[in-house]
Amino acid sequence: MEPTVSPLQIGEHQIWPPLILAPMSGVTNRTMRALYKPFGLGLTVTEFVSSNALKYGSKRTMEMIDQHGLEKPVSTQLWGDDPETMAAAAKVVRECGADLVDINFGCPAPKVTKTNGGSACLRDVGRCERIMAAVVEAVDCPVTMKMRLGWTESDLVYVDVARRAEKVGIKAVTLHARTARQFYRGEADWSHIKRLKESIGIPVIGNGDLDDAHLAMQRMRETGVDAIMLGRATLGNPWLISQIADLMEGREARPTPAPADRLRFCIVHYERMVEELGEARAVPQMRKHVALYLKGIPGSAVLRERIMRIPTAAEAIGVIEETIARIESQSTVAA
Ligand SMILES: Cc1cc2nc3c(=O)[nH]c(=O)nc-3n(C[C@H](O)[C@H](O)[C@H](O)COP(=O)(O)O)c2cc1C
After folding, report:
1. What CATH number does residue 103 fall under?
2. What pairing do the DSSP bridges indicate for beta strands 100-105 and 143-147?
3. Which ligand 1 atom is the nearest neighbour of the CA of 211?
4. How far is the CA of 231 from the centre of ligand 1 (A)?
5. How many domains does the chain have?
6. Looking at the domain assignment, is residue 254 inside a domain?
7. What DSSP string describes 4-22?
8. Closest residue by CA, ligand 1 atom 19
């Protein structure tokens, strides 16, 4: 079996397969990253962390950057608009175990852009460059950057920002091929990702709307990117990661497990979240995950409604177990 793609090299880190879990705030916490990594991810990224918040080191912020117990490598993502604060934050996360530091120039959320952070930085490419240079200077590990195409359709700055990134020593660039103003509307335009790959010498990671293993490989081939990053489509469906990893390793993609097995994994996910976060935090966070694991399962609309109202982990897991029993008894009858 011959691999169909090459490993992604970021500084001293060889990342195999070149398949990365997208940073997702409120989602890709430590538990989730550890749970999803064995499906075949080469790299995971923390939720974005405010460089300002790191100055105060609150318990919640420190938890976000904690790498304890995770397979390496892990990248820690920072956001902010001030080069010095970003550099200081990068030093802190490096001391706390980050293998790579990633700079966020992509978040379109108003609570971030109103302080000129995230994608709002793209309105001032000079500032982007100063932030990147300060962070690269501050740490002894590779620094990467993730961005959108630009603030608006009429101001697509990604090639300019990526060239500045390369100039100041950034080791890889991820492009989510939408503008900030688009939020999640429309489709990610991968022709821009191809253009970026043709414009810079450092590795390019393509991101946006990959929800099928064959589509992911097609995008890689068409654009020549060095790696791909997957976000929303993995939620409730980590098997997509294994399918892409299979294709990258030169195997046929394994089938998605049967509904009952998917729900069994959902219970593992639930229990791990309760163990690590405690029930009070895990139950609300797990509602969205359970809803996604239930996708495509007969009667899932009613079950989703029920799960949304259930206040304890034991009851929620009970409902999932009942659903597994129901699915299995139905398939026995059908057989
Ligand atoms: C709930 C949620 C939270 C996100 N948080 C972050 C974040 O903290 N940092 C970041 O760079 N991107 C964040 N993103 C954007 C994703 O990393 C990714 O770029 C985007 O979802 C497009 O990829 P996809 O189509 O595969 O989901 C977030 C996306 C979602 C849906």
Report:
1. 3.20.20.70
2. parallel
3. 26
4. 6
5. 2
6. no
7. SSPPEEETTEEESSSEEEP
8. 176
Per-residue burial over 98-131, b if 16 or more Cβ lie within 10 Å, else e, is: bbbbbbbbbbbeeebbeeebbbbbbbebebbbbb
Structure token pair of residue 120? 């709002």
Among protein residues, the one whose CA lies closest to atom 29 of ligand 1: 24
What mean pLDDT is predicted for residues 277-294? 96
User: Residue 186, SS3?
Assistant: coil
**Domain's final residue, options 226, 249, 272:** 249
Q: Where are the alpha helices (DSSP H) in 20-124?
A: 30-36, 51-56, 59-65, 83-95, 110-113
Q: Quick one: angle between helices 83-95 and 125-138, nearest 10?
A: 30
Domain around 291: 259-334
Q: What is the pLDDT of residues 96-139, one digit of tens each?
A: 999 999 999 999 999 999 999 999 999 999 999 999 999 999 99
Cα dihedral: 153, 134, 207, 43 (round 10): -170
Q: Which two tokens stand for residue 242?
A: 């294994």
Please give the helix or strand (H or E) that residue 227 lies within, else none: strand 227-230
Question: Kind and range of the H or E element at 281?
Answer: helix 279-293
Is the CB of 208 inside a 6 Å radius of any atom of ligand 1?
A: yes
Domain identity same for 51 and 81: yes
0.90 exceeded by the pTM? yes
Question: pLDDT for 243-273, tens place per residue?
Answer: 999 999 999 999 999 999 999 999 999 999 9
101 HSE (CA, 13 A, CB side): 32
The band of 334, judged by pLDDT with boundaries at 50, 70 and 90, is low
Task: Name the domain boundary from 249, 281, 308.
Answer: 249
pLDDT (0 to 100) of residue 60: 86
The closest alpha carbon to 50, from 3, 9, 22, 92, belongs to: 92
Is residue 175 domain-resident?
yes
77 lines ligand 1 (CB under 6 A): yes
Same domain for 181 and 96?
yes
For residue 293, the SS3 value is helix
Q: Would you state the structure tokens that stand for residue 29, as one six-digit string?
A: 């916490």
Q: What DSSP character marks residue 156?
A: B
